[in-house]
Amino acid sequence: GGALPGGITFTAGGVLSGTPNGGTAGSYTATFTATDQNGCTGSRTLTFRICPVISPTITPTSLPVAIPNVAYGPFTFNQTGSAATPITWSHTGTLPTGFTFTSAGVLSGTTTAPGTFPVTFIATDANGCTGSVAITIQTCLPITVTNPGNSNGTAGSPFSATFTQSGAVSPTFT
Fold it and tell me: How far apart are CA 102 and CA 170, in angstroms?
């Protein structure tokens, strides 16, 4: 007994499965009964949860490149989809050295080295339902391009001007 959420079925083979319909998030309690060929029964009541789709967002909508030794953020993560508060934030992956990410969803800090850091940020609602977003945080040293001293050419004569840079490792120019 007990109503199952739309899109979920229970088979005669004892399998509870399906894809919950939109708008079915919530807690459900149902009793499942097995009956043998002699009419003998056994039952078990199960309470289970269908989680809402939790969609993490960030303000601003994307993260800028971080520059070593320059304060970064704060950037605040939010979510849509769950009204079950409080929302607790966490992450997997390694943040740049010097960065912090709070359980309130705030990313900030000052790093000292360049690098690329793939991180997954996770929102967990009061019911244990989660949503996540994967973001790569990039930290780059400032790159300064210097114009060549000679920027004038003469028609019909060879011309060459070499740009230089500082800050980049193995740069290419385009």
Answer: 36
